[in-house]
Amino acid sequence: MRLETLDDWFRSHVLEVDSRQQPRWRRGLLFCLRLAYAVSRDVARGHLTLRAMSLVYTTLLSMVPLLAVSFSVLKAFGVHNQIEPALAGFLAPLGSRGEEITTRVIDFVENIQVGVLGALGLLLLLYTVIALLQKVERAFNETWRVQRPRGFAQRFSDYLSVLLVGPVLIFAALGITASVLGSDFVRSLGTVAPLGALINLATRLVPYVLVIAAFTFVYLFVPNTRVRPLSALVGALVAGVLWQSSGLVFASVIAGSANYTAIYSAFATLIVFMIWLYLSWLILLIGSSIAYYHQHPRRLLLLGDAPELSPRLRERAALGVMSCVAQAHYARETPPDDEALAARLHMPADALQPVVDALREAGLLRALEQEGEPSGYLPGTPPEETPAVEVLAAVRRHGERAGLDLASLALPPALDSLLGRRETAAAEPLAGLTVRDLTERGPGAPVREVTEARSRASQGA
């Protein structure tokens, strides 16, 4: 079977099938196949691989400063000696090369003297660490199709909490787990035949559980959007199992191979280390992509990259957004945010974002901000005084600027007059209607029905 034929078969039998008409087991199978196809497509197109490669470079520059900051924080709690075992565990798939890298990195960290660095050196040290966190956030935002990064104030507080609280929580969890598993009580239970097998199994599963818990926290915290815990857990479950399993394969296939030493000589350790970093970041981003598609299953049906609404959809979506916001305003409900608007209109949030930006730029929407980020939208002007045609005009002129607008477009006078009359005729059905009128029949009511209702009312009067 040729590749084109296989692709056509997959589209017709998997991607284009209406899963709502299928049994539950078939819906689950279709979702898993679509999810695997979407993630594989992202990897094949380089969306995830390029971000993983860029994070490898940033990690090489930031690893020692990051560990130095963590070392300073953990030293205040007396648990700084836990860094070396944790780093050795992360580099365990590299075999003897991992032990060598761990020893050298820890030597670098211990030899850093903050008092000698001075104010400028300390600022550069912190900047390198923050640059890594910012790069990681940008990679996850791109995976989640988030266009707005965190504000400066929120970024400062979140990054500071990661640097100060994160290491303490991580190594505290590792220490508690090691203490519980190594306690005399657990050892005594291990002598009992049934419980001994269960404890042995639990000991083997603990690394998986800790990795899955860490990945879940990353998927919940890092993207600058609201991530559902279940979606984060699903992505972390797949990524955690994949990461732990790939470590075993990496240790036996790549790290244990003598070819790298024969080819790269003294650089073999660095090359193998970079490959493992790349694989780790790629798996982490794959898990983030799985979490995204699990939370937004409609995106599995969109085969393109970033969906872009047609002019017709933009105009209708703009009227729908204003109707939803006005309806929530009059009902005294919680102002809808980006995710709520996307759910109400059955549109991807990233595709709807340019429409919301156009309405905000025109002053028709006002954003409620929480820690520098929009947390909901209110009408920018009274809905009963906002003409519906102004909503359409806002999205149609969005993106125009000096030198790239109607005034700079040279058209024959006859054609310009004809297009002007066409726009006037197209706006006639909305003449006299306001945004408040669009909420009378609900946010999903067609504009034509609202217009006909007003026409019948005026004729009856």
UniProtKB/TrEMBL annotation:
Region (Disordered): 436-461
Family annotation (PANTHER family): INNER MEMBRANE PROTEIN YHJD, UPF0761 MEMBRANE PROTEIN YIHY
NCBIfam families hit by this protein: yihY_not_rbn (TIGR00765)
Bilayer topology annotation: Multi-pass membrane protein
InterPro entries xref list: Virul_fac_BrkB, WH-like_DNA-bd_sf
Protein's UniProt name: Ribonuclease BN
Keywords from the UniProt entry: Cell membrane, Membrane, Transmembrane, Transmembrane helix
Principal location class: membrane
Record's subcellular location: Cell membrane
Transmembrane feature ranges: 55-74, 112-133, 159-181, 201-222, 234-256, 262-293
GO cellular component, one term: plasma membrane
Transmembrane helix among keywords: yes
